[in-house]
Amino acid sequence: MDLLLECREVARTLNLKCEQVKFNKCLCRVLANTYSRSLQRDFGLTDAPAWQTTLLELRSVMFCGEEMVAQWTHKNWWKSVISSSDSALIQKRVLLHLTEFLFCVKVLTLIASNHGSLDGRFVRPDVDLMFKINLLTPDVEKASQRDIES
User: Fold this and answer.
1) Mean pLDDT score across all residues of the chain
2) For the chain, percent helix, then strand, then coil, each to nearest 5?
3) pTM more than 0.85
4) Within 10 Å of residue 103's Cβ, how many Cβ atoms?
């Protein structure tokens, strides 16, 4: 559970860092909001081995997100702008990152849902979460476009 608390803290601090971002501020907000909204749910407690493994993977994915934002807040941020001038590539990178993040959250949801099932039957996962990846694409595209315009 400590890893989950650590992930929630990363989501909180990432939201604060959005104010310090020099470019891609809108994409940073999409990352921070996705982290925050997805980790607000109560996953429940489980001692399933896959639980800790998935939490470690989630933390690793979130670390990559933190690294992206660190590039956007660096004092020499203009070097990052020049080296990543292809906005479509940045958009794809953020979308891929968020897809990985939400996949980990989906796996955690499935593990927690099925852990309480004594007869081993599959429990239907959170349907809202299942569609978030598809719904996320327009958010990333709009945020990327706003960043380009600014």
Assistant:
1) 76
2) 80, 0, 20
3) no
4) 15
